[in-house]
Amino acid sequence: MRRRDAIRAGLAAVGVGALGRPAVGETTAFRPRSRLKIAGAKEAVVGPDGETAAVATTDGYATVDLTDPTAPRLLAERRGLLADRETGALDQIYDVKRDGDTLAVVGPANFVAGESTNGVLFVDVSEPADPTHLGFHPTTFPIHNCAFADGHAFLTGNGSAAADGVQRNELVVVAADEQREVGRWSLTRHDDRWGAVQSSFRVLHDVWVRDGLAVLAHWDAGTYLLDVSDPASPTHLGTVPALSPTALVDAGSSEYTASPGNHHYVRTDAENDLLGIGGESWAVSRDGALQGGPSGIELYDISEPTAPERLSEIEPPETADPTFRGTWTTAHNFSFREGTLYSAWYQGGVKRHDISDPTAPRELSWWVAPATTRFWTAAPVAGGSLLASSMGTADGAAGLWTFPAVEGTGGNPAALTAQTTAPGPTTTVDDEGATTAGSGAADESRTASERGTTDENGRRNGATGDSETTGGERRDGGDETETETPGFGAVAALGGVGVAAWLRRRRR
What angle do CA 502, 139, 453 make, to 5 degrees? Predict the structure, then answer.
């Protein structure tokens, strides 16, 4: 029986809408099992055996042994990739993906003024302690995210203007064995009305591929489902709309960070019947008042991909300051496994939800430490445990965290709503209840060029590979970590505007 038929009765009984956070089990506190410091950590992906992970490290990648989730162990680090190229090393590596024994490493995540090395590096990780580079496919565009399935890398191709002057925001398909481009799909060619819309509103931010189905998150333009069973010739199946071209033609720049819309991250379950769409947004000032706020994760029935049907929404954690300069609790990356959703919410922590009934998600676990962590991704490992990567804060080092498969709440959730924001640096209640000036996201949301305090590699992290077993809430050792514009960095590529300039313009 298809999912839609199975749950239709449930929809009729409980309705569809935004669901608040239900009560969680109180028998066991949910707290970290371990932490492994990794400088520049961004996306983390778990290998097919569940015993290893690969981590994007901004200036390279790392592999990690997860055999013992209480003591993850660094196996290999590779930084300064392709440093011998005339255009410089591959940098701003925010995303890695794995297909069998091959890892795809992509970058730069955002537009870089002047010459830069852009493309996808393929790596043999069959021996994770000794990865071997297989080949590199250069591109003319930065790559923020990718998918990797069936021997093909699917790249977010937000590049320079085409011959007709239109930013195409294309899906670009590359065959891994030959490091050769084999196909493209363009939103603006699918529907030419989007050509008149500012390209940042329709940026291709994320792509997911499973069993011949591709899902493309096109920000305010919505989410598009494609048949990629022939990777050389993707064809459109269905759409989860967000805002219309008409509504966006004359929209102001603040529309980019404001809800609704902002389709940021997409994933399907193992059956390809359930689709999750995570938004990324903040409250913006309009007419003297704050409007909007952080976005959550919407669940859709796509058992009929030509007609997606909304089932429910998991709401984001509350925050006292929902603006971009405040404490970030908007959705970021997430994963599905066997009726459980694993999710990351930046400073809003990490969560597990029971989605066996996707019309009524039930929160199982939540851990939050806003002063020291900004979680990028959450993924399952052996036994239902949770692996999460944190990009860090000024007061907490970047790296990997592991959590057990138990119900409960841990950390310091009260710090999210206790925070107060004043002009200038924020004052944040830290994980021990003390107040720390400037330890929230405010200073960390600036680009490296604005901060002017990074080394030649754009990093501010300390030592890496230091594994610690934790017994609950803790204060990290004060290592500073590189932090960039959040997941929408590809905007800078659009129209040839650098990230810093774009931020200044957006704040007017």
Answer: 40
